[in-house]
Design goal:
The complex is a heterodimer of chains A (585) and B (287). By secondary structure, chain A is of the alpha/beta class. Chain A has four domains: 5-196, Pyruvate-ferredoxin oxidoreductase, PFOR, domain III (Pyruvate-ferredoxin Oxidoreductase, domain 3, 3-Layer(aba) Sandwich); 201-383, Rossmann fold; 397-467, no CATH class; 473-551, Rossmann fold (3-Layer(aba) Sandwich). Chain A is built from 18 helices and 20 strands. Chain A has a seven-stranded mixed sheet with strand order 9-8-10-11-13-12-19, sandwiched between helices. In chain A, strands 2-3-1-4-5-6 form a six-stranded mixed sheet. A four-stranded mixed sheet of chain A has the order 16-18-17-20, sandwiched between helices. Chain A is elongated, with a radius of gyration of 28 Å. Chain B has helices at 23-37, 57-60, 73-83, 95-99, 103-112, 157-163, 177-189, 211-217, 231-238, 258-262, 280-284, and strands at 45-49, 64-67, 88-94, 117-122, 168-173, 194-199, 218-220, 244-251. Chain B has one domain (7-284): Rossmann fold, CATH 3.40.50.970. In chain B, β1 (45-49), α2 (57-60) and β2 (64-67) form a beta-alpha-beta unit. Chain B has an eight-stranded mixed sheet with strand order 2-1-3-4-6-5-8-7, sandwiched between helices. Chain B is α/β, with parallel strands linked by helices. The longest helix of chain B has 15 residues, at 23-37. Classes of the chains: A alpha/beta (585), B alpha/beta (287). Chains A and B meet through β7, α7, β8, α9 and α10 of A and β1, β2, α3, α5 and α11 of B. β15 (431-433) of chain A pairs parallel with β2 (64-67) of chain B.
Chain lengths: 585, 287
């Protein structure tokens, strides 16, 4: 891999760190360089410490590393927070005229560039541009052609007028020339440009774009870090495609609005994070038993309770798999990369409608707020397919009527999937309910029908297991004795880790699993490996538990779910029958 | 939509399990008649119901319907209507569903002014759980969970609605079939959120707010000089704790429903086979 370059800008919340970092990332992307960004941020609007970090190379970058080459530090704390990542020869750009930075100590082995950011910005038209002055200084250090920065500044400010664009360009050049003139130093960086075209986006944006591509027309949500970007992305865009976004009064309302829209026949979605998932779980069983297709996006953050709202964790896996009372069939998809956030969103909508059940689409904080470059062809809209499943219309509904002439939205079928009629379809009027129901959706406590409906709903999962591709992504050395399994956003870091290990002669095989339920059967892979390691961002090893579960010996089971308790004589017969089957097998 | 729709077309083949004499029978009849009279049919109507005795209504009516979780009927109705502006949406629930567990949604549904009808079957008691105080129970109403009465004032749903910017507020009585139907019809025809609180007596657990009580105490606003388009008049009626009223209490004739405010007018159930045309524009925005 070509040399990578690691850069950051840090200061207090409210210092414009985010937009400064984004402009630099954009400039690199527009120069045909790959970019991978990350953010250090806190749950506060002003003060504290926040940073935007950019890793760039001409080759693909898909992870952060523990190294910083150039740091723009607006506060002393920015330096302290990054001491572990800074190294001998790292460059720290700061404004010694800023009161808080006057006595700042640059560690001996590092290079401090004291640039009067604010004064130079004022000369160019306004103190507010001091961060752009710093960007110009960084361009000089990194030998990165400043014209690329111009392009990013134009994108950022063009709506605000040419004058502002020109002022910013001038500010950048002021920073550049100051470093060139005041510091007679050869820095070892050379950020070459290429002719490649890249787009730069984060996981939340990829999910939002995927939703629109998949025909999502209705989104209801309640703001929560780190899922809010999905909502802000859709707002103002989904309307162009005939859709609508509602900010609900809470997550209870959001998921019920989405449920209503889905009953109306729209492709609908909500997105939230753990605390919101807890509330939405109330409605989860209703979605499943009424067989309503719905995509629920969970952008995970550190829990439990309010936890660390701006920090990474993959702790909600069990909650998504098992949350809610009763037994609720559901799918859980977990894209492993930012581009897969797009494609798995499209897949989630198709799976939801084909199998008429709730689908969890789960990303996590580090993926949601991380931007990465991709070739635009990665998101080829012509490749998007829409499968709405068994939807009936006026001409086909007749095949799904009861003897008494009522439409049967919960018809017992071999594959478990029943016909679906949108409101307005003639003769399709029917009830949907969270109560157990018959084929027409009318409440029932009939023990036989209860069993038939439970079996039917579970049969959909079995059908999906057979019909769909639940394969993991594989990389590393296919013949290695060590198997590393991961899920969610760890894939990028693992892919690069494998290269580091290979350099040291350690070969590993990696399976990155984007499907938590249904999921691929990895028992043979685990059996073939000498050592299996599961990598995930949580303490309990929730996915590791699933892998262990899958490779365990199977037991025979006696289950009863028709609403009546076990009876002694019946149970004795069941046990005898199970034993007899066991002998035959 | 056929023109020969009768209200019985909105009846399902399920026999209600409500107690004989329950006010909900009359409430439901008025809803079915109101829907039929306003030119709707079961295939273009969506009824959303909550939980409780009132929640069973979706089962006894014939239409597209969802019987949801407790207290969330209004958000469901909101979603249906936004996705399908062409469908008539009616939301029904009880006083517990609407003013206790779902009170937060009520306020916001009123504010949104989505063009749908909300019928609350108010019996001032929790019936299905066998007689506990409801948010509209009187302060001294003795129940198994409030032996000395709730000792807190009942929720005034009309006041809550008016304060939240309601554009249609009405009160009806399930036993006054003609007036109840008339009021429901006005709510359906209202351009926006049509809210009707219906006195729907519980004959089993509430021996205070009975048919006789309402018959004796109800003042019909239609027979008074009440002007429903006057917000001050409405305020006086709503804050008058001495009398029970029926009729349209308030109607904002210049109401602009949500779909007009927000330009939400497409049938969202219709989709192309692939990504929408010009979806590639979305990718270009990330250059």
């Amino acid at each position: 891999m070509a040399a990578d370059f690691n850069w950051a800008v840090g200061g207090e919340a409210g210092d414009g760190i985010d937009s400064t970092g984004k402009i630099f990332a954009q400039a690199l992307s527009r120069a045909g360089r790959h970019v991978f960004t990350s953010k250090d941020f806190a749950s506060r609007i002003r003060g504290g410490y926040t940073a935007y970090k950019v890793r760039t190379s001409v080759d693909k970058v898909q992870s952060v590393v523990d190294r910083l080459d150039v740091l723009i530090a607006l506060t002393p704390r920015t330096i302290e927070e990054n001491l572990d990542e800074l190294h001998e020869g790292s460059v720290i750009i700061y404004d010694g005229e800023r009161t808080t930075m006057q006595d700042v100590e640059i560690p001996d082995e590092m290079i401090g560039l004291d640039v009067p950011l604010k004064s130079l910005a004022e000369d160019a038209g306004g103190a507010i541009m001091r961060n752009v002055v710093a960007l110009g200084a960084a361009c000089e250090v990194a030998e990165f052609p400043i014209e690329n920065l111009d392009s990013a500044l134009e994108k950022r400010f063009k709506d605000k007028g040419q004058k502002l664009v020109d002022n910013n360009k001038e500010a950048a050049r002021a920073g550049q020339s100051y470093v060139a003139e005041e510091y007679d130093h050869e820095f070892d960086y050379d950020l070459e440009t290429t002719d490649e075209d890249y787009v730069l986006l984060n996981g939340d944006e990829a999910i939002g774009m995927g939703a629109i591509a998949a025909g999502c027309r209705f989104y209801a949500g309640y703001p929560i870090t780190p899922a809010t970007d999905v909502m802000t992305y859709l707002t103002g865009r989904i309307e162009r495609y005939g859709g609508h976004v509602v900010q609900a009064e809470d997550e209870l309302s959001a998921i019920n609005m989405a449920l209503g829209a889905a009953r109306g026949g729209a492709r609908a979605m909500t997105a939230t994070s753990g605390p919101g998932i807890d509330l939405m779980t109330e409605t989860f069983g209703l979605i499943a038993t009424s067989e309503t297709p719905l995509v629920i996006c969970n952008v995970m953050r550190s829990g439990p309770s309010t936890g660390m709202p701006t920090k990474q964790e993959q702790g909600d896996l069990n909650g998504m798999l098992y949350g809610g009372h009763g037994e609720v069939p559901r799918f859980v998809l977990a894209p492993t990369t930012i581009d897969e956030c797009f494609w798995k969103t499209v897949e989630a909508f198709n799976l939801a409608e084909k199998y008429q059940l709730p689908v969890y689409l789960t990303a996590d904080l580090s993926m949601a707020v991380t931007e990465q470059t991709f070739s635009p062809e990665t998101f080829d809209m012509d490749e998007v397919e829409i499968d709405r499943g068994k939807v009936v219309d006026e001409t086909t509904i007749d095949d799904h009527m009861s003897d008494s002439g009522g439409f049967q939205p919960h018809e017992i079928t071999d594959d478990g999937i029943s016909p679906r009629a949108f409101p307005g379809t003639a003769d399709g009027a029917h009830m949907s309910t969270g109560l157990e129901h018959d084929e027409q959706g009318r409440r029932t406590e009939d023990t036989d029908m209860r069993v038939e409906q439970v079996d039917k709903r579970n049969r959909k999962v079995e059908t999906a297991r057979e019909r769909e591709d639940w394969s993991p992504r594989e990389f590393g050395d296919a013949d290695a004795d060590t198997l590393v399994i991961t899920w969610g956003s760890n894939e990028g870091a693992l892919a690069e880790a494998v290269e580091f290990l290979a350099d040291e002669g350690i070969d590993v095989r990696v399976l990155s699993v984007p499907y938590v339920f249904p999921r691929p059967d990895l028992s043979e892979d685990v059996a073939a490996a000498e050592t299996t390691v599961v990598v995930e961002c949580n303490e309990q090893g929730q996915f590791a538990d699933l892998v262990e579960h899958d490779v365990l010996e199977r037991v025979d089971r006696i289950n009863k779910y028709n609403g009546v308790r076990f009876k002694a004589d019946e149970l004795a017969d069941d046990i005898k029958a199970t034993l007899a089957e066991g002998v035959e097998a | 939509m056929s023109s020969d729709i009768r209200f019985t077309d909105f009846k399902s083949d399920k026999q209600p399990t409500w107690c004989p004499g329950c006010g909900d029978f009359g409430t439901m009849n008025g809803m079915m008649k109101g829907l039929a009279e306003t030119g709707n049919d079961p295939d273009n109507t969506f009824v959303v119901a909550g939980i409780g005795c009132s929640g069973k209504i979706g089962t006894y009516m014939h239409s597209y319907a969802l019987h949801g979780v407790h207290g969330r009927a209004l958000p469901v109705g909101t979603g249906v209507k936004m996705a399908r502006p062409d469908i008539e949406v009616m939301v029904a629930g009880g006083d517990g569903d609407g003013y206790s567990i779902g009170a937060g949604h009520f306020v916001h549904a009123v504010r949104r002014n989505v063009d749908m009808t909300y019928v609350v079957m108010d019996n001032r008691i929790y019936g299905l759980t066998k007689g506990q105080a409801s948010p509209t129970s009187r302060e001294d109403f003795e129940t198994s969970t409030t032996p000395d009465g709730p000792k807190q004032p009942p929720v005034n749903p009309h006041a809550l609605a008016l304060a939240s910017g309601a554009t249609f507020i009405a009160q009806s009585f399930s036993s006054d079939a003609l007036r109840h139907q008339e009021i429901i019809q006005e709510a359906i025809e209202h351009d926006g959120f049509g809210f009707v609180n219906v006195y729907s007596p519980c004959v089993t657990f509430n021996d205070v707010d009975t048919y006789d009580y309402f018959r004796d105490s109800l003042v019909d606003l239609k027979e008074s000089d009440h002007d429903p388009t006057n917000r001050e008049d409405a305020k006086d009626v709503i804050l008058d704790n001495e009398k029970e009223h029926q009729g349209v209490i308030y109607q904002d004739e210049s109401s602009v429903p949500y779909h007009e405010q927000h330009g939400v007018d497409e049938d969202m159930s219709v989709l192309p086979d692939g990504a929408p045309e010009s979806a590639t524009d979305l990718v270009r925005e990330f250059y």
